[in-house]
Design brief:
Layout: E1 7-11, H1 16-27, E2 31-36, H2 39-49, E3 54-58, H3 64-77, E4 85-88, H4 109-132, E5 136-141, H5 154-173, E6 179-186, H6 196-205, H7 210-222, E7 230-233, H8 244-258, H9 260-273
Helix pairs in contact: 1-7, 4-5, 6-8
């Protein structure tokens, strides 16, 4: 699929990967509607872009009607053109605090943003492409944690595993159509999502360059034969992707070793809270 003059929705386009994608796609001639909850960030990016080929839509992506509005904004803003590409980047990383025995407000926000909102986005996009009777491309953003465990962020890992299942399932279902569903699964990129405690182990493993990450999304966009596939990026790559088996086998034990101290600290908190003696 050619990018020039296409209409793209970028979920989570005001920071990190999504922000860079918005800038990259606009530079390649696409018309982009990018979403985010922070109005100031959205307006700042609009000013930076300085073009009528992009528009910010303030949106809580967990809300169906607010997602649906993005399609209307695209059509109104880009002279009746309809959406061709949907890229889902928006996500949050919250730890799963098993100490709480009640349900604190927002305790399942990771599931709502990373997974439930993604399912809604897929339904809307697929319905749109079928209704318009046009080819369509959906790209999800998973993570290396979609293939291995994240002991300190189990809900995040669960959502990223689920995104891969969603990608493969819809990719298989839609192969006879002109709708493609694929995903990018980076290991570590230096974005605002990385917390300070996470930076030491991730720096030791090495970061994926933002340019390599952009190349992965562009590879999926340009290769019409791809459907139901996941491109995995690790720090050992430059402009290429590697197979799941090699990348996960290499990175998972290293990641586990580097987070041992933090895992042990968290376990000690659990033992203390529940008054468990542990030798």
């Amino acid at each position: 699929m050619k990018i020039d003059n296409k209409v793209v929705l970028v979920y989570g386009g005001t920071s990190g990967i999504g922000k860079e994608l918005t800038k990259t796609l606009v530079s390649l001639g696409a018309n982009v509607v990018f979403s985010g909850q922070n109005k100031e960030k959205g307006e700042a990016l609009m000013e930076l872009l300085g073009t009528d080929h992009a528009v910010f839509h303030q949106c809580d992506i967990t809300n169906w009607s607010q997602q649906e509005e993005m399609y209307k904004v695209a059509k109104q803003y880009f002279d009746g053109k309809t959406v061709d590409i949907v890229i889902l980047v928006a996500g949050i990383l919250d730890s799963s605090d098993v100490i709480h025995d009640e349900e604190p407000e927002g305790s399942y926000r990771t599931l709502q943003v990373n997974l439930t909102a993604a399912i809604k986005a897929h339904r809307l996009a697929i319905q749109h492409f079928l209704r318009e009777n046009k080819p369509g491309c959906i790209i999800n953003t998973s993570s290396i944690y979609g293939f291995c465990g994240a002991p300190l962020a189990p809900m995040y890992s669960a959502t990223k595993h689920a995104i891969i299942g969603l990608t493969k399932s819809y990719g298989t279902l839609l192969k006879p159509t002109k709708i493609r569903v694929n995903a990018v699964a980076p290991s570590f990129i230096e974005t605002p999502m990385l917390t300070i405690p996470s930076k030491a182990p991730t720096a030791a493993l090495g970061y994926v360059s933002m340019s390599s990450c952009m190349n992965a999304y562009l590879q999926i966009l340009s290769d019409d034969s791809m459907n139901g596939e996941v491109l995995i990026l690790t720090s050992s790559d430059t402009d290429t992707v590697v197979e799941k088996s090699r990348s996960v086998q290499v990175i998972e034990p290293k990641l586990d070793n580097l987070s041992q101290e933090r895992q042990e600290s968290f376990r000690q908190q659990l033992y203390s809270h529940f008054q468990i003696k542990h030798e």
